[in-house]
């Protein structure tokens, strides 16, 4: 996830239903430059999530100063941004898996929401 990808979300954040058009835009740009086709490309896109989650961990460690050699290197705003990158990367990976990413996600979110309410 690059700053340009995050800017695509930010630029459209005020528009209704801006999330999914932004995900589609990022997906299309990545697809146009994909170096690995088929299953390999899909797996690499999903593995990108691990990298992004690692950046969350790095930011938390940097926020808390847990690395004595580096000290405090990040802010909680950095952690927030990294968490957003995880979400965006996951949605783009889902879009890579299916063109019905929005419907799949919203259906799953509905099931999880109902389950969390004890329904």
Automatic annotation (TrEMBL):
**Domain of life, per lineage:** Bacteria
InterPro entries xref list: AF0060_NTP-PPase_MazG-like
Q: What is this protein called?
A: Uncharacterized protein
- What organism is recorded for this protein? Streptomyces fodineus
